Amino acid sequence: MLKLFYLILLCLLVSSCHDATNNHDKNINLDTFSDLRDEKYSLDIVDIREHISKIASEDGVALPMDGFVNKYYKEQQPFLWINRYGIYDRADTLLNLLKGIDYYGLSKDAFRVSKIEKDLYLARSLDIESSNDNLNRILARLEYNLTKAFLRYSAGQYFGFVNPDYLYNSLEEYQVDSLTTRFRQLCDLKVLRPDKKFYFRAISHILNDSVAEFWHTTLPKGRLVGKLLKELDNPNLTKSERLRILCNIERCRWRLRGMPNTDLHNKYIVVNIPSFELYAFDGEKSQTMKVCCGEINFKTPILTSWIKRMDVNPQWIVPKSISKGFLHNYSYMHKMGMFVLDREKGKLAPEQVSYDRIMSNDQYIVQAGGKKNSLGRIIFRFDNNFSVFLHDTSAPWAFKRTQRAVSHGCVRVERPLELALFLLGERAEEMEDRLQYSMSVDFINDVDSLKKRNIDRKRLVNTLNVNPPIPLYITYYTVYDGICGQLCYYDDVYGYDDVLIEKLSPFIE
């Protein structure tokens, strides 16, 4: 930069801003800088890249998109916001967009808004004589911070700032044996995460001067998020309420792999754990019922799946953790219609149960179907990695409670026959009588066999396929609109809001 190249650059820097804002330097021309020889104003592309590298190294990586930004500049990829002749107008477009992110409860500091605004002013006004800055450092900061802010916002809004599968599955440790400790799996949403394809698509929009267009495609969509954003604008919110709103806005951002979000379905079921309610939607029609979910030590997992079939009067294979309490209570096992299923010997009487074989999975305690069965009269099955289901219950008293975290992880439904008819849809009319009969028939349990007394076998139903399968969402919204349409606040029964707020705190106000 031995000649007057930097003078030409500085003039063009000034003229590059097309905003309608007042620019006191708009009439600056080459003569204005004809006597400048200070290295502070000397442009050096190599020096700019060195400054970016240093900034990235000191900045670290707080989010996956930060790592992409660092790698992008480490690989000497093209500048996105500056060039040899000035600052692109799209930098002003992005700054104006960033100034409005508080609408979403996002922190301007996390997106370097004030730093970007200050550096844009310095680059255009050249008001750096009394500082230790030079033009290369300013342009380096602008290039890096603009890219980081754009990708942070775009990826964060489109995919969420937190990965729930990682967050919730790193909360609870349990000991497998004396040497092995693992984390309990509490979530299986399989959310989409940003990848190279997304980042390069975002960059292509920068290069094509379509920053605003891409920005708006990343916004979370849906009925609930619209209501949450409106509630966030309520000036009377307490700090606690505001944080809870921000948590639930984040949950609305999570995009599900291989399964659309709820608003894109016509018929679907939502179980919301904090509200202890099930919501069944079918177009304009909807219904709700109470549910019981897992207690604090046996949390109901957050997941999505498809309800594929219903089994009437199912047998219950008692989990190992519960079986231990029955091992020597033979009279109770007989009374409740329980027997032992041995891998080698088949069906056995309760008295032949073995603790060692139960623990080694060579024996199982099984409860026969019937009115005493803990699963109730019907179970709704869907694929999942937790062995949890929706089902009826032999203990309906729990639905009278406000706090209904009482199960070992499964979801107990208050009105299972209604849910069954909802799933069957138009086929339900011919099936309703048979379902009612099958769910009320009295089975006589015996150790050796299940005998039936005065039963019309033609009316019995054992298994019904749900065709087509119905989407199921087991969610965790502590602020939710349900069927009534009004936002309601619910207790954070599993403490998930607290851990989510901690992870979101660098990015929210």
Automatic annotation (TrEMBL):
The keyword Lipid metabolism does not apply. PROSITE patterns: LD_TPASE, PROKAR_LIPOPROTEIN. It comes from Xylanibacter rarus. Belongs to the YkuD family. Residues 1-19 form the signal peptide. It holds the Pfam family YkuD. Keywords: Cell shape, Cell wall biogenesis/degradation, Peptidoglycan synthesis, Signal, Transferase. Residues 267-438 form the L,D-TPase catalytic domain. InterPro entries: LD-transpeptidase_YkuD-like (IPR052905), LD_TPept_cat_dom (IPR005490), LD_TPept_scaffold_dom (IPR045380), Transpep_catalytic_dom (IPR038063). SUPFAM superfamilies: L,D-transpeptidase catalytic domain-like. The active site is at H391 (proton donor/acceptor), C410 (nucleophile). GO terms for biological process: cell wall organization; peptidoglycan biosynthetic process; regulation of cell shape. The keyword Ligase does not apply. Pathway: Cell wall biogenesis; peptidoglycan biosynthesis. This is L,D-TPase catalytic domain-containing protein. GO terms for molecular function: carboxypeptidase activity; transferase activity.
